[in-house]
Amino acid sequence: MQATDFKTLLNYIEKCNTAHLHKDFLPFRANDQIIGWVKPEFINTLYQYGIFKADDQINTLPPTISLESLGQKIIQDKLVQTMHELFDVYPSPHAKPIGQIDRAVLPSLGFIGTGVHLNGLVKDGDDTYLWVAKRSPHKRLDPGKLDHIVAGGIPAGHTHQSALAKEAEEEANIPHQLIIQAQYTSMVTYSMIRPEGLRRDVLYCYDLWLPQDFIPTPNDGEVVGFELMKIEDVYRRVCDTNDFKFNINLVLIDLFLRLGVISAKSANAQMLKIGLRGKLFP
């Protein structure tokens, strides 16, 4: 790995870890747990919906108000545009959900968002290839960027395994008998400031070795097409351009380390590996 490549890859990670929770945000509590981090200027708006400052000065959702109804009020007042999809609300990655809320509201309240990403890999002799998708130009977030063959948020009521199967069929027409062979490999986490708000994301990463004769096809309009690229060319595309969606770069760095495209033994590689588990909490 060249020094310039390392600098670029580390920069991708740093750009996904721009949030300073204690410095720039206030904790938000529900069900006796800190579940979110909110911009101070947005707290006054939340007071209008019944949020109150408890004796310990932590902004708290009263038990008489559900998370889902709070999200509905925020959307009804046109503070956020609905995404018509509920997500589970998790205090931490391995905790049980304590409620549900419209996906679009997660960044405004600094709640953890979960997603699943699939590396669709193909082996041809000694060469390894990766299926790369191009996002629709009509996507609300990151239109036209390069993406994984399958990637998406985890809707309420789904595990990352069931969400992967759902997304695989919807986005790339990957049949059930293939997707059940996908192997969970790692978790990527980060906290960052985005135009839509505070993203505290947990990405569950999978690898799937696909047959050479399998051709993915767009199914739900999320992407406009797929391209099979040699893994070394994907690496150069990541290092030399900004073509991939921001968090795809992180999942690909994880893949490069796992496949040996980046030697995992160097000190720089260890820095990248540590950086892929960014802080979700102060």
From TrEMBL:
Domain Nudix hydrolase, first and last residues per copy: 113-252
Superkingdom of source: Bacteria
Keywords associated with the record: Kinase, Transferase
Alphabetized Gene3D superfamilies for the sequence: Nucleoside Triphosphate Pyrophosphohydrolase (3.90.79.10)
SUPFAM superfamilies found in the cross-reference section: Nudix
PROSITE patterns to which the protein is assigned, alphabetical: NUDIX
InterPro entries: DUF4743 (IPR031804), NUDIX_hydrolase-like_dom_sf (IPR015797), NUDIX_hydrolase_dom (IPR000086)
GO function term, MF aspect, one: kinase activity
Signal sequence, start to end: none
Alphabetical list of PANTHER family matching this protein: THIAMIN PYROPHOSPHOKINASE (PTHR13622), THIAMIN PYROPHOSPHOKINASE 1 (PTHR13622:SF8)
Protein name stated in the entry: Thiamin pyrophosphokinase
Organism: Commensalibacter papalotli
